[in-house]
Design brief:
The complex is a heterodimer of chains A (about 270) and B (about 290). With about 270 residues, chain A is of the alpha/beta class. Chain A is built from ten helices and ten strands. The longest helix of chain A is centred in the middle third of the chain and has 14 residues. The chains are: A alpha/beta (about 270), B mainly alpha (about 290).
């Protein structure tokens, strides 16, 4: 799984011996004749938090969409290049639904489905055929505890998930993503609608979750990337400027001056 | 600096005149409804009785009740619904949840719009050709109801599609992202949250179907048939046609009788509409997002 062309420089390269979970090769994404991402290549290791930072319109969200083939639902979205998940090109997965179940996604704005809190979390196991009530109960409690929401909702699991507050809904969304028992968790600016205290609690959870899964964290808060990410990629106007060990990026040991300017807030 | 200029003054006058004009025009809209209802209640009200509703017409339809027409209308509406709702909802689900935006979809949409614009008498003749003659259903409830179903199909499709579209797209995306198929998404999230809108559309369709006359005239509604239908292959009387017949075709009908029939018919339609509004208000109270 190691090819030379997509490898980034010494600091950003994968650690020796670490398994590559996700490998992106020369990935380009366009909508009609508008290119939003061009020729991006890098690897994401198993059990790392991989941060992606960059200003608006730099192709971060489109990148996430390509990973679990959500482009299938967007007729005008064109994806070229390769995305290898567990070493297999995602478009060659015969069962796209199984692929998506292994990749959890959390959106910028919380989406509490108009189902009970319980069903919000139990839905994914149910869709994959689990009917055993004890298993479902156990999954719901575990995922809600993980997402730091259990204590607030344990007495009203029957009430509607879509009527929770914004911050609670976002934790519900995270619990729902965890209920898929994903191997890869995609977080797209998850903290945009969450208060700082809750954000910190979720960040602590993410550090633990890293033991069990690989996490890609897209964030506009560069300090959040610094707190959480092992390595960080900097996207700018649809291009990958560089991938670096997060500490290097924030201590100025960068290959490209634009990266330093961006993390120091001196951009433009 | 802040004193009123002539222009300000004039603008304000124009504003209040325009507002009054629009208000008057709106009130004019309500007037016919009020007049119709008042006339019906004054002239038809005395006709109403349990006997009127539950006996058959007698003496060449100049006396007696309206039972066969009432029962016939219920038959026609129910059979029409059984035919149009499954097709209409399935088509709306396809168009809203599955169809890509391509030429086929655009042609289908165009066809639906045009189907809605076809005059009801043309539907009636189509019904004669297709259901009465070609499928050999004869003049029967089945043929008449299918004609009504074809006519109301666009209404069901459009109202169902609107109800489906009212469910936020983010819910669908969230489901797809967790590996749900389109059908799983529809069944678990989209349908449960649009069913109220769909049912509202269906109820409104009922009220429209009940009042239609032209499509059933040649396809299954009888001039005078003092028996209740036994199956969908029988002909039947219907409220709307009965009203037409006793108003124009039968001599020596007492003046109150047509008003009584019209009052019952409009009562059926309005109570359906009221039910639909009450239902929608009730469900809106339970809005889930």
């Amino acid at each position: 799984m190691v090819t030379d062309e997509g490898r980034t420089a010494v600091d950003g390269s994968t650690r020796d011996g670490a398994e590559v979970k996700l490998s992106v090769r020369d990935l380009s994404i366009s909508y009609g004749d508008k290119t939003v991402l061009s020729g991006v290549s890098f690897d994401v290791e198993e059990h790392e938090i991989f941060g992606i930072i960059g200003p608006a319109n730099s192709g971060k969200t489109s990148f996430l969409r390509a990973l679990n083939r959500m482009d299938d639902f967007i007729p005008e979205m064109q994806v070229e290049g390769e995305v290898l998940f567990n070493g297999m090109e995602v478009r060659r997965w015969r069962n796209v639904y199984a692929l998506r179940r292994r990749i959890g996604v959390v959106f910028p704005l919380p989406v509490g489905l108009p189902l009970s809190i319980y069903d919000n979390v139990a839905l994914s196991p149910q869709l994959s055929g689990i009917k055993d009530k004890t298993v479902l109960d156990e999954t719901v409690e575990r995922c809600l505890r993980r997402a730091a929401l259990w204590d607030e909702v344990k007495d009203r699991l029957d009430s509607l998930g879509s009527l929770l507050s914004g911050g609670q809904q976002q934790r519900l969304t995270i619990a729902r993503a965890l209920s898929q028992e994903p191997e890869l968790l995609l977080l797209d600016e998850f903290s945009i609608a969450v208060d700082p205290v809750t954000t910190m609690r979720i960040e602590d959870v993410l550090k633990e979750l890293k033991q069990e899964m690989t996490i890609i964290l897209v964030t506009n808060l560069v300090q959040q990337a610094r707190r959480l990410a092992d390595r960080t990629a900097f996207f700018l106007s649809g291009e990958l400027v560089e991938v670096a060990a997060t500490e290097d990026l924030f201590t100025g040991q960068v290959q490209d001056a634009r990266s330093r300017d961006y993390v120091e807030g001196r951009f433009g | 600096m802040f004193e009123t200029t002539d222009l300000n003054q004039r603008n304000r006058q124009v504003e209040s005149r325009v507002k009054t004009l629009f208000l008057l025009m709106t009130l004019l809209l309500i007037l016919p409804v009020l007049v119709i209802l008042t006339m019906l209640v004054i002239k038809g009200g005395p006709m109403l009785s349990i006997d009127f509703l539950f006996t058959e017409p007698t003496q060449g339809m100049t006396a007696g009740g309206i039972l066969p027409a009432l029962v016939g209308t219920v038959w026609l509406v129910v059979v029409a619904l059984l035919a149009s709702v499954p097709f209409g909802v399935a088509a709306a689900l396809y168009l809203s949840e599955y169809a890509a935006d391509n030429w086929l979809t655009r042609i289908i949409n165009l066809a639906i719009i045009n189907l809605a614009g076809v005059p009801s008498i043309v539907h009636a003749l189509f019904g004669v050709g297709a259901f009465v003659l070609f499928f050999r259903f004869g003049t029967s409830i089945l043929a008449a109801s299918l004609t009504l179903a074809v006519m109301t199909l666009p209404v069901v499709i459009v109202s169902t599609r609107e109800a489906l579209q009212a469910v936020p797209h983010a819910f669908r995306e969230a489901c797809w992202n967790m590996g749900a198929t389109r059908w799983q998404t529809i069944r678990r999230v989209v349908l449960p949250n649009s069913i109220s809108g769909i049912l509202t559309g269906v109820i409104l369709e009922v009220s429209r179907t009940a009042g239609e006359t032209a499509p059933i005239m040649f396809t299954g509604a009888a001039f005078y048939l003092p028996f209740l239908p036994q199956s969908v292959y029988d002909q039947t009387m219907a409220m709307s046609l009965h009203l037409f017949v006793i108003s124009t075709q039968v001599p020596d009908v007492p003046e109150g009788l047509p008003y009584g029939v019209a009052l019952v018919l409009i009562g059926m339609v309005l109570s359906m509409n009221a039910l639909s509004i009450a239902f929608r208000t009730y469900l809106r109270g339970k809005k889930k997002w």
